[in-house]
């Protein structure tokens, strides 16, 4: 008889399930996830019952994977076990094997004591209300029963070949020289194989998969985690450096001078290349992206679309609009052009190198072409789950009453002659997120003052803006 299972409330996120091993998440949770997700696939899959399962390199992942697979098979699911590798390799396997869903055991870029699960249902993301429904099913022990099978496969060679299939050397006389830093995350082996097969001088840092992340935290959106990569690029006189997060679905880049090229700037360079092949194409970016990106897409003849932050939300919007390319400030890059529309940092790296090859310019030159603005980093500061959305709504109402130019697709993004500022509630943490951008420091200071005034009007201490 199935036993009802209640999850710790903190592990149920908007886009995945994630928690601290031994404290808020464990093998029993993994088993219940398998039972509930397997039941959903059996009931919604039109008779299909094949689910791919992968895992990252965290020390807890083998145990979590085993419990998950037990739960899936007990619900009648046939499991295709793709093993150790990056999250996008799991996504790829769902397409490759025409599976009815997929689950990746991963803590993404969180510290080593975390782990979690990312999902696909059919070829689409599984998130939001679907994850909440999974938790309700587990709490009610509302499961199907069955006897599924388990098949272990080696998908990595096919995946590597598929990535390299879209590498273009262009007319470049000398190959690009590149440093790669998987940060001891689960993309390490794939990155090493790519580096070995692409022309040029390639240096791989921290390529060994190690769930303790001994070199640095595997999050390329934090500049201090790119210091080793910057040093390798400059000491070896390389053209650029590419970093990946812990599960390989987010990219970070530095140019030949060691300057960080952020997610929206990467997307601008990729958009310039793609729009030469697909004039007028729709390109999506999240609400945190620079106005420079949206203006650049328009200047190049594309159709920019600003959308809500969140990789699952972006993927759905791509399917809705038919956009061939999308991206987020956080380094999620999505190609539907020649690819499958999911966020794959390794594939984005291949397309970025190809874009540079075709351009006839150095990567530094492509970066320098982008208009320069001044902006704050992403500012995150505590605000309770109960209060965070209310604060944003209070700010929106005050701004509307004052006739401000506000885009409220995701929080409030306020534009004026000084530039823009953003305030939104995080979907995954009890924090508010803010960002400001202007053409010069004086204008940025005025925007930050506007932001602080609005926060204080709602009784919120502002973030440190120094």
Structural features, described:
- 37% of the residues lie in helices and 21% in strands.
- It is α/β, with parallel strands linked by helices and 466 residues long.
- It has four domains: 9-155, 3-Layer(aba) Sandwich (Alpha-D-Glucose-1,6-Bisphosphate, Chain A, domain 3), CATH 3.40.120; 178-259, 3-Layer(aba) Sandwich (Alpha-D-Glucose-1,6-Bisphosphate, Chain A, domain 3); 262-372, 3-Layer(aba) Sandwich (Alpha-D-Glucose-1,6-Bisphosphate, Chain A, domain 3), CATH 3.40.120; 375-457, Alpha-D-phosphohexomutase, C-terminal domain (TATA-Binding Protein, 2-Layer Sandwich), CATH 3.30.310.50.
- The strands form four sheets. Strands 1, 2, 3, 4, 5, 6 and 7 form a seven-stranded mixed beta sheet that branches. Strands 17, 18, 19, 20, 21 and 22 form a six-stranded antiparallel beta sheet that branches. It has a five-stranded mixed beta sheet with strand order 9-8-10-11-12, sandwiched between helices.
Short description:
The protein is of the alpha/beta class.
Which features does this protein show?
7-stranded mixed β-sheet; 22 strands; 4 domains; Alpha-D-Glucose-1,6-Bisphosphate, Chain A, domain 3; 6-stranded antiparallel β-sheet; alpha/beta; single chain; 466 residues
CATH homology group of the largest domain: Alpha-D-Glucose-1,6-Bisphosphate, subunit A, domain 3
Q: How is the main sheet built? A: 7 strands, mixed
The radius of gyration computed from the alpha-carbon positions, rounded to a whole number of angstroms, is 22 Å
Portion in helices: 25-40%
Number of domain units:
4
Strand content: 15-25%
Tally of helical segments: 14
The fold-level CATH name of the largest domain is Alpha-D-Glucose-1,6-Bisphosphate, Chain A, domain 3
What is the arithmetic mean of pLDDT? 95
The N- to C-terminal Cα distance equals 58 Å
Q: Stretches where pLDDT falls below 50 for ≥5 residues?
A: none
Number of strands: 22
CATH architecture of the largest domain: 3-Layer(aba) Sandwich
Structural class: alpha/beta
| Oligomer classification | single chain
CATH class type of the largest domain: Alpha Beta
Shape: globular
